[in-house]
Specification:
alpha+beta; five-stranded antiparallel β-sheet; Butyryl-CoA Dehydrogenase, subunit A, domain 3; 5 helices; about 60% helix
Length: about 210
């Protein structure tokens, strides 16, 4: 692969990484978990259809849920699953870091490897946080009436969260490809420079040998 082709490949991959980061930011504030009532006391009553859909800014497995006393203060649509600072904020912040570092790597060619490694690490943080949420068992209690009657809720992870996790993993893999290409290019340049340095010595040796025969 020629140097021009390698540069084009790195640019394409870095654009793809930045795109993944942008979608990570968007998906961080989309709906992550659907909560539905799973309480035998609610069957046959209007509360049987109690449900919530919370986005990444509202849910957090890292913090955990809030107490019922705190949820009661929320009034209508109260839920112990609702966090004050959702894990979506974390994934959005690191998604933005991915975008910034990948974009910088496109512009600053001399620092491609360092910047890309930073983007890989940020992607892995997103993958860890999103994956932790995507594989968790979501449970809680909630109420839509605001009268203090809470029912048990079971949560189902939505496709948006799985997509976010997949994009984070893809971003890390693409970053590894950029680092591999850049490392191979650096090794090829080092080898070429070494050959160029050895060439004059070889020519000098041949000249001395010819002079000796003369």
């Amino acid at each position: 692969m020629g140097r021009l082709a390698e540069n084009l490949s790195k640019t394409f991959l870095l654009i793809a990484i930045a795109t993944c980061g942008a979608f990570i930011i968007i998906l961080s504030f989309m709906n992550w978990v659907d909560f539905d009532a799973d309480d035998p006391f609610a069957r046959g009553t209007p509360l049987e259809n109690l449900s919530f859909t919370l986005d990444g800014g509202d849910v957090s497995r890292i913090q955990g849920g809030i107490e019922i006393s705190e949820a009661s203060e929320q009034g209508e649509n109260a839920c112990t699953c609702r966090a004050g600072f959702g894990d979506g904020y974390i994934t959005a912040i690191f998604g933005a870091i991915v975008v910034v570092l990948a974009s910088a790597a496109i512009l600053i060619r001399s620092r491609v490897r360092v910047l890309t490694i930073g983007a890989i690490l940020a992607s892995l943080v997103v993958f860890g946080v999103a994956g932790y949420n995507a594989t968790g068992i979501w449970e809680g209690v909630g109420s839509t009436s605001g009268d203090g009657v809470f029912l048990n809720l079971d949560g189902d992870v939505r496709i948006e969260l799985f997509t976010l996790t997949t994009l984070a993993a893809l971003s890390a893999v693409l970053g590894a490809a950029v680092v591999a290409i850049d490392t191979r290019e650096a090794q090829a340049l080092a080898a070429a420079e070494m050959e160029a340095e050895e060439a004059p010595d070889n020519e000098s040796g041949m000249t001395d040998e010819v002079s000796g025969w003369a």
